[in-house]
Design goal:
homodimer, alpha/beta, Rossmann fold, Arc Repressor Mutant, subunit A, 2 domains, 10 helices, elongated, DNA-binding
DNA sequence: TATAAAATCACCCATTTGGGTGAACGTTAA
DNA sequence: TTAACGTTCACCCAAATGGGTGATTTTATA
């Protein structure tokens, strides 16, 4: 496994050095340390790190939360806030940016490593989640009369936007058979259209 | 705002008492403290708390991760692990259960409060997310010819499984107009069916 | 105010989808 | 060896959807 590439944004050189020292001896590679918002922006563009550690208070007009917005907008890289005070207003402002984690100062090496590892994991999970992984188990967990395997295959194809013709071709069956499966699974899901079926599935995936 | 109802699962009475003391003086109400897996299961059923604090190591055969699986399966309540970061294998086992947060021992009151607040927030966000969180901004970010607001409303209705008739009724327009909007937005999305449109949106969710 | 963009509606036609019935065939388990 | 179930297919009909054209009204906005 290659080292995890970290960008640190922290205006206090002492803390920045501390973080660097914590991370460099293990599985992490600090690609850059930014002390200002502008530095952070250019370092982001230059290195596209795997994760960003963001001090919220940077002693200038714009703060870490502004950087977070840029990251979410342009890079979709997970970021972790480093925040010193439990200033409630700041926390409330930080929450909606969907950080991968928080570290409350003062923190030790263990806190830091845990936050990064967990943050990276959750972020990757969220990305995987958002793709599509319906299973027949998940579907049948929510209905009384379970789908057969073939019905499930047709349902999945519907979920993926296929037409009946495409399904017939891909599953090597006639379009009539596809229609039979659809009629049966509609009854089991208690819906009367493809889109309703999709919307239903979405609520329980 | 009513107090947040917390279930604590922790076999060490000292730590349990510590947590209780931290939480009771603020906005939290501890509905129960469980010292064993079986206790946790019955307290869960009895109180259906808002959030569960789970010590992973409970000194018995089954641990907090087993409880987490039960929570995810039957209750969909967010839970936060309390763990000492020492054991890497345990952490790896804990990650896939999608906890709302972690607290690393030893922790202080501030860590605890932050974890709960953030955990609850993220969890509720995830629940909202999975319902339907399309915005016209998100959609238009991915296409060259942007949707108009009305087209977007129709697209969202499609995403939610509505039929043309339902849309016409809900948007106070004729079914012909609905069809016009659909035809236009299909061109902009470069699709030829509702399900294809939904599948497309899902990729940029 | 002139003009463009957005929103509204109508009509036609072809295709797709949904609902219902019936039936053949193979596998599995009582 | 029945019976139940899953899978396959056919046919019919009604409803919904998709594709195209054209037109009017409303709403920005230059």
């Amino acid at each position: 496994m290659s080292a995890i590439r970290v960008l640190v944004v922290e205006d206090n050189p002492l803390i920045a050095a501390d973080i660097e020292q914590c991370l460099t001896n293990i599985n992490f590679h600090i690609v850059a340390t930014a002390f200002t918002v502008n530095e952070a922006i250019s370092e982001l563009a230059a290195h596209t790190p795997d994760i960003v550690l963001l001090d919220i208070n940077l002693g200038e007009e714009r703060d870490g939360i502004d950087i977070a917005k840029i990251i979410a907008e342009k890079y979709q890289i997970p970021f972790i806030y480093i925040t010193s005070y439990s200033d409630n207003a700041t926390i409330e402002r930080a929450k909606p940016t969907k950080p991968a984690g928080y570290i409350i100062k003062p923190f030790d090496e263990r806190d830091l490593l845990a936050a990064i590892e967990i943050g990276l994991y959750n972020f990757s999970q969220r990305a995987i989640m958002s793709k599509s992984n319906i299973t027949i188990e998940i579907v049948n967990k929510h209905i009384s009369d379970p789908l057969t395997f073939r019905e499930f295959e047709v349902l999945r194809a519907i979920y993926e936007g296929k037409t009946n013709q495409q399904m017939a071709k891909e599953l090597f069956i006639s379009i009539n058979t596809v229609k039979t499966h659809i009629a049966n699974l509609y009854q089991k899901l208690n819906v009367t259209s493809r889109t309703a079926a999709i919307a239903l599935i979405r609520t329980w995936l």
